[in-house]
């Protein structure tokens, strides 16, 4: 039967999310055609190493507290327990930044914050880099927003610039180090955007989900390393990639109290939104997240990040040796390479799968400007990465 209700027509503007299902389909066909082939997946965006011991110990202790009347806890505060907000504030302090706990809103991950943030904005022109993590685009299209894509290319190292933008009052999504390109802003590059935002009364939504991968001096790990950002930028971050929380779920949204629009501080709108639609993250997870941010847990988690970084370096080194253009590989678990011999993203995907039994992600799946490029990730095992890179090199 057909119901007599209207659905959200904006959903028709969102293209079918076929990228990962299409990859899975082609990989399955390859495996069936040759069951002895050892297929290596360098396409995964998920972590593979376990949570740090300090994190699981904190969570175990928290579970036990939940089983005792005196220490049991019910609904968690919508913005996170103070102990977690303080631990996040401490994380920023170690970066040399003053981000008070009261400006930090804990959440169940960066994807949710990216998707939910649209609730507090009206009809603005939204600027989104191309290629990009698809959540920014789709969540704005779903609520009918006007989106302008910012094309990026090899010439700008796949980083967007504000050149040529003449309007004002934009909302700009920036992600650094980026997914899928691994490209990271220098302080000067990011400063251009902060200056632009201040000049034009625009808001920057800065996604720093990969901050833990930054190793180079002069590459910011938070937008607040740039002067003036506390007036024009909010920041979304996550423990998914820095501490292996993809399945455990914890992130945060920073909204400095000085960020205001239409006479209202944005944080007031976010607090109202969260109090209405969000009921907090589990106490057990918050204790684990706190442990991941305290020095011992952070040190242990960063051992995993170092492991992934080594994989990224192995991939990057092979491409450098062959003179293949790429971004990422440093400051990022992603390597974004130009497909050889002018192949399209999907042509190279098929070639790599058929001839080398290696799976990557076609760049065209992240936006038009991704056509002709390919994403490899460092989240596999060191052995598999070495093996895959050896096979890849033969096709370059
Ligand atoms: N932001 C970017 C740029 C990502 O690549 C991802 C996940 O891959 C996320 C956010 C999602 O993070 P979370 O697991 O915290 O939802």
Description:
The chain is α/β, with parallel strands linked by helices and 396 residues long. It has two domains: 17-46 and 297-395, Aspartate Aminotransferase, domain 1 (Alpha-Beta Complex); 53-294, Type I PLP-dependent aspartate aminotransferase-like (Major domain) (Aspartate Aminotransferase, domain 2), CATH 3.40.640. The chain has helices at 19-33, 53-66, 82-94, 110-116, 134-142, 187-200, 229-232, 240-243, 266-277, 283-293, 295-321, 345-356, 382-393, and strands at 40-41, 104-107, 125-130, 146-151, 171-175, 203-207, 233-238, 251-254, 260-261, 264-265, 326-328, 334-338, 358-359, 361-362, 373-377. A hairpin with a 2-residue loop joins strand 9 and strand 10 (264-265). The chain is globular and about 60 Å long. It starts with 18 loop residues before the first helix and ends with a helix. The mean pLDDT is 97. The structure holds pyridoxal-5'-phosphate (PLP). Pyridoxal-5'-phosphate (PLP) is lined by residues 45, 109-111, 133, 175, 179, 207, 209, 238, 240, 246, 251.
């Amino acid at each position: 039967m057909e119901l007599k209700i209207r659905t959200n027509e904006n959903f028709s503007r969102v293209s079918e999310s076929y990228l990962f299902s299409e990859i899975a389909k082609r990989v399955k066909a390859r495996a069936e055609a040759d069951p002895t082939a050892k297929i290596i997946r360098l396409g995964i965006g998920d972590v593979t190493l376990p949570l740090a011991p300090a994190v699981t110990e904190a969570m175990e202790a928290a579970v036990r507290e939940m089983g005792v009347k005196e220490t049991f806890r019910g609904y968690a505060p919508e913005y996170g327990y103070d102990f977690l907000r303080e631990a996040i504030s401490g994380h920023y302090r170690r970066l040399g930044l003053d981000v008070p706990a009261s400006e930090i809103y804990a959440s169940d991950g960066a994807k949710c914050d990216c998707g939910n943030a649209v609730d507090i904005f009206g009809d603005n022109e939204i600027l989104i880099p191309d290629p990009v993590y698809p959540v920014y685009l789709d969540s704005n299209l779903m609520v009918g927003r006007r989106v302008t894509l910012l094309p990026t290319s090899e010439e700008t190292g796949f980083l967007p610039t504000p050149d040529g933008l003449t309007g004002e009052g934009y909302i700009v999504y920036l992600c650094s180090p980026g997914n899928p390109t691994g490209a990271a802003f220098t302080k000067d590059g990011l400063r251009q955007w902060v200056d632009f935002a201040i000049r034009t009364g625009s808001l920057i939504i800065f996604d720093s989900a990969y901050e833990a991968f930054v190793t180079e001096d002069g590459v910011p790990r938070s937008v607040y390393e740039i002067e003036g950002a506390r007036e024009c930028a909010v920041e979304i971050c996550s423990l998914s990639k820095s501490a292996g929380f993809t399945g455990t779920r914890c992130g945060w949204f920073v909204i400095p109290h000085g960020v205001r629009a239409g006479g209202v501080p944005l944080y007031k709108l976010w607090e109202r939104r969260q109090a209405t639609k969000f009921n907090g993250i589990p106490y057990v997870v918050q204790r684990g997240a706190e442990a991941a941010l305290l020095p011992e847990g952070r040190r242990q988690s960063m051992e995993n990040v170092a492991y992934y970084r080594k994989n990224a370096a192995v991939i990057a080194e092979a491409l450098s040796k062959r003179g293949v253009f790429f971004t990422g590989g440093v400051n990022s678990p992603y390597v974004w390479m130009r497909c050889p011999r002018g192949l399209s993203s999907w042509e190279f995907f098929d070639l790599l799968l058929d001839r080398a039994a290696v799976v990557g992600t076609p760049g065209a799946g992240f936006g038009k400007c991704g056509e002709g490029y390919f994403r490899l990730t460092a989240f596999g095992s060191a052995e598999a990465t070495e093996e895959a890179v050896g096979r890849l090199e033969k096709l370059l």
